[in-house]
Amino acid sequence: MSGMTSYLAGRTAEDRVAAEYARAGHVILSRRWRGQAGEIDLVAEKDGETVFIEVKKSRSFARAAERLSRRQMQRIYASASDYLGHLPDGQNSVARFDVALVNDRGIIEIVENALCA
């Protein structure tokens, strides 16, 4: 049952983060977008900038941040490259990589440009 609980907690965290971005004026383009390299939790857009968002939930912000591995970052970059390939400006599109940390109280801390290539 803990697997299902973790899954549902992750989905809830993603929903809350999507709502936070929407409140800030972003348009959510995709949830759990899957490319050949893997999945991106959320893809949003605001003012012509595509934002790739990785959501990490844990007891604390620090523990959530620790859960983002180098391998995951590489997967996110590869998936984002695949996504950008479908946009009119392709790899020349303006984009950034954010990490949204969610603690056990449901508080969200967004780190913009957290993954710098």
UniProtKB/TrEMBL annotation:
<protein>
    <recommendedName>
        <fullName>UPF0102 protein D9R08_02485</fullName>
    </recommendedName>
</protein>
<dbReference type="Pfam" id="PF02021">
    <property type="entry name" value="UPF0102"/>
</dbReference>
<comment type="similarity">
    <text>Belongs to the UPF0102 family.</text>
</comment>
<dbReference type="GO" id="GO:0003676">
    <property type="term" value="F:nucleic acid binding"/>
</dbReference>
<dbReference type="InterPro" id="IPR003509">
    <property type="entry name" value="UPF0102_YraN-like"/>
</dbReference>
<dbReference type="InterPro" id="IPR011335">
    <property type="entry name" value="Restrct_endonuc-II-like"/>
</dbReference>
<dbReference type="InterPro" id="IPR011856">
    <property type="entry name" value="tRNA_endonuc-like_dom_sf"/>
</dbReference>
